[in-house]
């Protein structure tokens, strides 16, 4: 006898796999957009709703993800400067009311 495949048992697994795939593609698009565009902006907010990732949102709408692999020491109010089509960016931190160079980072 042939066993019937119960679609209701497979459906939750399919939904979870689809959601993870869409999330990974969406995240990859944000990273590509950050690398492609030029940025001279200030970090206005951060979000760490993901377990091992902190997202830093810039004034111009771009986002930087700080993960265990790319662990950036960023704070709200830091100024980010980068040229287009590069994965390196400079961080400037405000000290005594003046932005001074803090460090250079690269996204892998």
Short key terms for the protein model shown above:
108 residues, alpha+beta, six-stranded antiparallel β-sheet, 6 strands
Describe this structure in words.
There is one protein chain. With 108 residues, this protein is α+β, with helices and mostly antiparallel strands. The chain is built from one helix and six strands. The chain has one helix at 7-36, and strands at residues 39-47, 54-58, 63-66, 79-82, 88-95, 98-106. A hairpin with a 5-residue loop joins strand 4 (79-82) and strand 5 (88-95). The longest helix is centred in the N-terminal third of the chain and has 30 residues, at 7-36.
Which secondary structure elements does this structure contain, and how are they paired or packed?
Layout: H1 7-36, E1 39-47, E2 54-58, E3 63-66, E4 79-82, E5 88-95, E6 98-106
Antiparallel strand pairs: 1-2, 1-4, 2-3, 4-5, 5-6
In which range does the helix fraction lie? 25-40%
Q: State the helix count.
A: 1
Q: What is the ordering of alpha helices and beta strands?
A: HEEEEEE
β-strand amount: 35-45%
Q: How far do the termini sit from each other?
A: 53 Å
Mean pLDDT level? 86
């Amino acid at each position: 006898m042939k066993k019937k495949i119960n679609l209701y048992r497979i459906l939750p697994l399919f939904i979870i796999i689809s959601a993870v795939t869409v999330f990974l593609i969406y995240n990859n698009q944000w990273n590509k957009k950050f690398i492609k565009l030029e940025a001279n902006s200030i970090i206005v907010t951060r979000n760490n709703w993901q377990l091992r990732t902190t997202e830093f949102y810039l004034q111009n709408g771009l986002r930087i993800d700080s993960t265990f692999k790319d662990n950036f020491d960023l704070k709200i109010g830091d100024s980010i400067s980068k040229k287009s089509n590069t994965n390196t960016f400079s961080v400037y931190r405000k000290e005594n009311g003046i932005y001074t160079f803090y460090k250079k980072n690269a996204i892998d």
